[in-house]
Amino acid sequence: MALPRSIARFNRVVTNRVSRHVATFLPGFAIVEHRGRTxxxxxxxxxxxxxxxxRYRFALTYGAHxxxxxxxxxxxxxxxxxxxxxxxxxxxxxxxxxxxxxAPPGVRTVLEAISxxxxxxxxxx
Length: 125
Hints:
Elements: H1 5-19, E1 29-35, E2 42-52, E3 55-59, H2 67-75, E4 77-82, E5 85-96, H3 105-113, E6 118-124
Antiparallel strand pairs: 1-2, 1-4, 2-3, 3-6, 4-5, 5-6
Organism: Rhodococcus wratislaviensis
Protein name: Deazaflavin-dependent oxidoreductase (Nitroreductase family)
GO molecular function, one term: oxidoreductase activity
């Protein structure tokens, strides 16, 4: 179970506008640059990201049906800006892990509390 869509709407309007300014350099955060599936418009979405075994893993706190996730999967990849670096990602795969063992302890606690067991994983390339 991911967070409710009402929280997602609030974050899109309020929280994301603030976090966009820090997500490009804070550890555990990134801006995902992706293109709309039908509009073709470029979007920039702040996310949590972690490197796990050389791949980039995104915590899907709103589930796998979020527009940005669907856009990345449909396009076969995306670009992220994290820790002041631009990284091109390919081969997106959605996975499930109820242990959240890949996440740092604080993040793991939050993911467990909201039962956000799904993640998106991509390869650098």
